[in-house]
Amino acid sequence: MKKRNVMLAPAALALAAVIVLPGCGSAVSGQAQAAGESVQLMKLGQTATAGLSGKIIPDQDIKIVSKVSGKVAAVNVQEGTKVAKGDVLVQLETTDLEEQVKQAASSLEGAQAKLGDTEAGARKQEIDGLQSTVDAAQGAYDQATAAVEQAKAALDLSTSTYNRLRNAYDSNSGVTKEDLDKGTMDYQRTQAAYAQAQAAQKAAGAQVQGASSKLQLAKVGATDNTIKALKSDVERLGAGLELANSSLSNATVTAPIDGMIVKKSISVGELAQAGVQILSLVNMDQVQVELSVADSQIAQVKTGMPVDVTVANLPGKTFKGVIAFVSPVSNANSNTFPVKVKMDNKDGQLFAGMVAEVKLNGTQDSRLEVPKSAIVKKDQKEYVFVADNNHTAHLVEVKTEEKNQSWVYVQASDKLKANDQIIVNPTDKISEGTQVKAG
To answer: Domain 62-92+253-277's class?
Structure first.
């Protein structure tokens, strides 16, 4: 049996074409022969060209949220307001955010100034001042050195005098105890003076070294690590300023596209929470039809394929569309695949939620509607019993497609077509070739 190319048929056409025999409506002509199994017969209705049924959705449906939290100062739109891309929709209060921007800008300016001064190095006045400090320290060191030399000469003299007095006193050469004590005190005093002069010289030398180091650093400039650290501070504070400016900018919520506001969830004075929807914006200049296509037909549906679309609410009108998306993954709970058709709606006749019928251009295949009670399952296949004009039952294999709880679609063929009589609720007594009669 040839596979179906399309999925759904308008229920009104199918139901209008079904004629039910005893048990389902008016009886078929009572020509069933008297002999044979008593059965319930049903005449199949006329076939109808199949279509894909789906709902219209906006081509663009945007849930607008605030990127920052804050109190709402103004709401410039209402439900039904048409807006253009960039229009201000909602304004949050910005006093605190503006202050944060000022603080971040001030911190960045200070860091940039410090980096600039460090990279430029010391000025001439600073170099001259440091050089004067070095010269003064060097002069103090020279004086300290001269004092050490004088103290050394005095120490040498007092040491010689002390040694002479000590030797003379020990040999009883007329040197008194008072003379020796005086010589000893002179020696100790000059020894202490020499030590003090050496300490002063050492301190003066340290002053010279320190002043010289500062002068050298000023001439050479800051190290690479110092410059890197200062640059890092500038970058960090610059990022902080960008973040503050971004927060200030995000306090103004603008329209991302042209469209119409269809839902408003915020009012002046309320607190907008970051990430929580406050408006819904749609663009209906183009719309889509969402379809679910059975796995037996999905291979025949291609992206870019032209289609005709009709809407029950707009009788007599046919819209041109194009298959925009064919999912390679089936729906989670069925063996159907999501398909989307895109079409123009510049005149605004189509509304989201309308039910649309999509006809693939060039599709000629048709289907019949059969009650599930007529389906016989054998060896993992499905059949119906067709009663011919001689009231003989024939088993015909079919492939079914779900319609609803009680009915299925089957494809018309040379063995099963409109106006054929099928057996409803066949029993085990019915098989190929069984003679039947309407009962």
So the answer is: mainly beta
* Cβ neighbours, 10 Å, residue 417: 14
Nearest Cα residue to 256 out of 56, 61, 58: 61
Contact 116, 222 (CB under 8 A): no
- pTM of the predicted model over 0.85: no
CA distances from residue 268 to 75, 91, 131 in whole angstroms, order as listed: 6, 9, 68
Q: What is the pLDDT of residue 236?
A: 94
Encoded tokens for 48: 């109808």
Q: For 126-136, what is each residue's pLDDT tens digit?
A: 888 888 999 99
Q: How many CA atoms lie within 13 A of 386 on its CB side?
A: 18
| pLDDT tens-digit series, residues 82-93 | 999 999 999 999
* The CATH fold of domain 11-48+366-438: 2.40.420
Q: pLDDT tens-digit profile of 152-183?
A: 999 999 999 989 888 888 887 778 888 888 98
Q: Which CATH class is domain 52-59+282-360?
A: mainly beta
Domain ranges of the chain: 11-48+366-438, 52-59+282-360, 62-92+253-277, 122-220
3-class DSSP state of 375 = coil
Q: How far apart are CA 215 and CA 127, in angstroms?
A: 7
